Amino acid sequence: MDNFYLSAVLRELSPEVLGRTVARISSSNSSLLIDVSISGKRRLRASFDRTAPALYLSKRTSTASSRDAQTSSPFAALAHKRLVDASLVKLTKTPLDRIVELTFERLEADDSQTLSSLVLAFTGRSANAYLVDGQRNVISSMFDHSFPDLASPVGGEEASKLTHSLQDSMSQSEIVDRFFAAGNIFGPQLHTEFLARCADRLPAAAFRSLVSDLLNANPPALLYSRVALEDIPKRVIEPKADLLLSHIELSQARDMIRHQFSTLSEAAEVYYTRRKEAVALRSEYEQLKHRLSREIDKRESALKRIEADRARFGEPETLKRCGELILANLANARFDDNKVTVIDYYDPKLSQIQIDIPEGATLEEAASDYFNRYRKAGRASEAIASRKQEVTRNLDPLKQLLRKLESEPTSDCIESVGEAAGQLLESPTRARRGETKRDQKKPGDHVGRWFLSTDGYEIAVGRNDRDNDALTFRIARSN
């Protein structure tokens, strides 16, 4: 959620949440849920996902599992203890930065008023939540990060003054350097939108129109998608490019499906729900594609090594022929350094050929050497042929599965290709003797080792190849 959309969401939800009393505060993974007794069971959802931080009113009930409930964050528990029955009296945002502060006031037993604040920093990698007392002391933080400097807001100028320094003669590159450089308030999506608007107007006019739309007091709640929203869990898309949340009409999305909602929070909730599904499906697709590519590369590399071994040992029949020709030419062979010229009795024309021999070896010794190499190459040839057959057994089927996956990136295809790949790559020994009890785990069983990160994420680590496959293609698929 970029800076401008966040500002628009705050303007929209402030009338609904200000003056409300906190009923409950809880956490789910990297989100903080604040129930301020709004109609329709809506709650403030503050997501601190590093890739997609956001704040909006959510109707979605918590889907946290019993495992999540058991690992509820200490930060949420402390915030619940201090803020329940307190009223939300103030909602502010740092100018031109994604830091929001919610100020609460609670009446104590002695009739005194106590102020506390939740500072929500939706700042990408450093996204965090802080519980602050009335003296601006940090009591606790959701994750381990430094506290933002609220006394010195980032970005001194107001958004409405952005175009004051703009000159009509400025080129597109000059405006990009001035307003869209790294660390500026305009995110990548707005940068792309500026470039799209430059297609049919001068750069200065394009930038003015962009700023004007961003500061619209009554913005539309929009979502653009490359495919129908209901198809997102079924078709692999690029979440950053194929699903766009916006409170302005996007020129860059003219060829996409446009969805309009009644509120910015509603649009945000649908966006982040679908985005999560898109990210999960794409991750599953990429993992399966990587697995197939890795197995194909392993087999092709093994084939190269096999051919190198074959060249090193030589062809058995050629070695045998050289030994026999040397013995047949004992009387008339001519030496030339480490070569011997002999008559090729296998050739109807009886042509002369040269054969390499070991330095200082007699003809008898050279012939014996060739016969020894012939026997050794014969044994090696059998082993090499067996290795090659084993390596190439599944190579073409794996390539076909990869081509199918790339040409049809859907959830059904991922499932069918994953199952087929599992059968192809299953150990023949294991297939013959059947699965052991350890292998007969149900899809929902937890495998591997499980941890909870300081960010609130549940992390599963496979202990072997079997665990990794189960985590990737069974547990991660459904979660």
Describe the protein.
With 479 residues, the chain is an alpha+beta fold. The chain has 14 helices and 17 strands. It has helices spanning 3-17, 66-70, 74-83, 172-179, 188-197, 203-214, 239-242, 264-313, 316-328, 363-392, 395-407, 411-425, 428-433, 465-478, and strands at 24-28, 31-38, 42-47, 54-58, 87-93, 99-107, 113-121, 128-133, 138-141, 221-225, 243-246, 257-261, 334-336, 339-343, 352-356, 449-452, 458-461. Strands 5-6-7-8-9 form a five-stranded antiparallel β-sheet, covered by helices on one side. The chain has a four-stranded antiparallel β-sheet with strand order 1-2-3-4. Strands 11-10-12 form a three-stranded antiparallel β-sheet. Strand 14 (339-343) and strand 15 form a beta hairpin. The longest helix has 50 residues, at 264-313. The protein is elongated, with a radius of gyration of 35 Å. The protein starts with a helix and ends with a helix. Residues 63-71, 151-157 and 429-444 have low confidence and may be disordered.
**Gap between N and C termini, in Å?**
23 Å
Work out the helix count: 14
Strand order in space, largest sheet: 5-6-7-8-9
Beta content = 15-25%
Roughly how much helix do the residues carry, as a percent range?
40-55%
From the helix content, strand content and strand pairing, which structural class follows?
alpha+beta
- Main sheet specs: 5 strands, antiparallel
Shape: elongated
Give the radius of gyration: 35 Å
Average pLDDT taken over every residue: 82
Pick out the low-confidence regions: 63-71, 151-157, 429-444
Number of strands: 17
